[in-house]
Model the fold of this input.
Amino acid sequence: MENNTSLQQQLLEAGVHFGHLKKKWNPKMLPYIFAEKKGIHIIDLNKTVDHLQESAAAIKQIAKSGKKIMFVATKKQAKEIVSECAKRVNMPFATERWLGGMLTNFNTVRKSVKKMQSIEKMLSDGSAESLTKKERLTLSRDKDKMEKVLGGIAQLGRLPAALFLVDIGHEHIALSEAKRLGITTFGMVDTNCDPNKVDFAIPANDDATKSIAIITNYIVAAIAEGLAERQASKDEEESDDSNNENEAKARRLEAEAQAEAARGGRSRAAGAAGGPGGAPKRRVPSNRRPAGGGAGK
Done:
């Protein structure tokens, strides 16, 4: 409980509880509104803490299963915070602008990413040297333009398992694409949005940089935890496999040694018995000649 209190205190200091003006509110946010002060709605931080922890637990499991979570925040005050947080846990992000069809038309977007990567390769390995200066400049400009929009999803080979959105009203295109594809959605929801549009709504101020930073960092910490647990279980499996291999090897060597010992014991026993008959052989003295040996001389 103490942890919850300190988290609540941090959220309060970051201004997470400040909603929009009363006249801009969405009635569906009523359960998450604590009060109204000077015409502004105040978000209930108890609800924020509960929903934030619930979202973090769900997102941690997605990360632990090895799937990707994509961060979407194209608002000016959220861009830098979100892109830095996503890079920290090596997750895809879209912070410049949402390309229509980035998810629903993923194959075409992947082609653009591949084109961007091939231009990058040309410019870095010197194969563009044969082109004219103007052509090189055009290529470089194209690459920069693509990098700005597609840079965050360059390593995304398949559709993400979840989307984390800052301001679900602002990112409505991304949200509708995710819904159409059945992708799990997590979002910071202010008092002017409909919380039912996302699977996991976190009631919070989505305009202040401090508020965006504290919520996003909390989610990223949960992802990092999930990734660490995944790595730990992988290491454990590997060590178990190597232990099993060592045990099998030891058992094999032991069986071989026992077989060898049994073979040695059998040969010693046969030698002691003096051959297969079992009775010891009698030695014939060398000076005794066989009967009738000298008759012919």
